[in-house]
Amino acid sequence: MARRRLVYEGKAKILYEGPEPGTLIQHFKDDTTAGNGEKFDVIEGKGVLNNRISEHIMQGLNSIGVPTHFIRRLNMREQLVRSVEMLPVEIVVRNVAAGSLSRRLGIEEGTQLPRPIIEFYLKNDELHDPMITEEHMIAFNWATQQDIDDMISLALRVNDFLSGLMLGVGIRLIDFKMETGRIWDGDFSRLVVADEISPDSCRLWDAKTGRKLDKDVFRRDLGSLSDAYSEVARRLGIMPRPGEETGRRQGPKLVH
Question: What is the pTM of this model?
Fold first, then answer.
């Protein structure tokens, strides 16, 4: 098999040159980090779960007209994606107070917010991804005003879709991180949802018990991260529950 050209390697994924011009192969690793890499472990199977869950979500977004970089899944760990010009900004959408928002503002974790709150962070590990404003993005040419408007619009549409998807299977979407990239068509460009949307980038709580089904399980030593991610995949109908036939794929199971 021909050796693939490495384009980029991050903490949780590797990007290789794709088979066609303008494409990349996105490989999901089992590496797991928290606190900007201060906590590290290799959790077997995590990359497989994130690949399948992100595929499921990206396909759903594409189907309702929310543009993403996702093309198709190639195997259990890899997917074919469009090559995009990534904006150096992370968008965080918060529906419920948790994590850094609770720490910064002294709001009790689990408090329902009056409306979704959108925050922006500069993608810079050395600076620990500091929070930034729209003024910062425009002043330092990290994004234009049109980019910012498009990021907000995409983020709210993803939040609506993801909130409904998760609530339908008994999971509350507390918050999530999203990244965007620019696709060029001649002189015209548009932003699309890029990177991944998975339990690595979302806070997901069981709607009845409040059990955490996301990366906080690893951050806070709350049990098995693999079990938490597997539960999300099972509820979404991506993988069978114990005792179910593996040959018959089922859709999401509605939780009342």
Answer: 0.92
